[in-house]
Amino acid sequence: MQQHGTTMKTAVNCTKNILHSTETWRLRAINQKHLESFEMWCWKRMEKISWTDHVRNEEVLLRVKEQRNIVHEIRKRKANWIGHILRRNCLLQRVTEGKIQVGIEVTGR
Question: pLDDT under 70 in the chain at which residues?
Answer without folding.
Answer: 1-16, 100-106, 108-109
